[in-house]
């Protein structure tokens, strides 16, 4: 059985039925699985999903207090820019293009650390990276951890129900997980520690990193604009933390066939290019599925790609030494043949 078929913890309702078709669990089944996997009394190996949602809960407090005490035109603007643009773009730069796909390389550990901590720490890299490899391997097929065809809730709660790594991997398979995570700079548990905690990252290191990151950014925001700015931006991070869980459902057209000729060129799955995620986070999703290892996914002139601009800036500064850019291949293999064929049709 291929490694990516079993590297993730299989939900109680399974990925597919006996005939090989996608299992579409009921809302009740999904919520039951969600509660079970957040139960630390059941097993300490549930700690990482609990940790992830604990951050969301803490950020939700900031968000509510922002609305009650600090809402004004300037804090709303700051929150919008931070939550919609900065957080989203950083997720594309760090979690997506670097941690998962290795689309570029840093000169040294310092620049990697800086990029990792450019924003408020929210999503555990381990939950994102391993499951995203599976997503690309099984996009819109049974086993895809956020298969849009199974519904909104299936995708929204995927970080708990479908994305954590399996808790019973052999030492050899755990080493394969380590190889997929090594370049991120996160220190790995030993196999003995993995057997105890059920995770790649150690909880003590994860909690310390969280405290230091949040403490640093709260201090910076406070010095720049007092509690008003700090609560606004932490609240914005909370809004993004919830909103980002809806992205793959929308990015795969809510499980429908909504690809557009001349806009979406990858037809191996249901991914689509969307204007808003593209403009604010560089997430031209169909382009990305066409060339997942490209550091740029905004190939056309109107496809603004803020994540790519950061990577290019870092390359200009010498902080990034290598990157993949598939714009030329996209034009040669997809856009120009389509454009030329379209012109011939119009001429005839």
Automatic annotation (TrEMBL):
It is a multi-pass membrane protein. Residues 72-293 form the Fatty acid desaturase domain. It is an enzyme of class 1 (oxidoreductase). Keywords: Fatty acid biosynthesis, Fatty acid metabolism, Iron, Lipid biosynthesis, Lipid metabolism, Membrane, Oxidoreductase, Transmembrane, Transmembrane helix. Its EC number is 1.14.19.-. It is found in: Membrane. Its main location: membrane. The chain crosses the membrane at residues 47-70, 76-95, 206-224, 230-248. GO terms for molecular function: oxidoreductase activity. Belongs to the fatty acid desaturase type 2 family. This is Fatty acid desaturase. It comes from Mucilaginibacter angelicae.
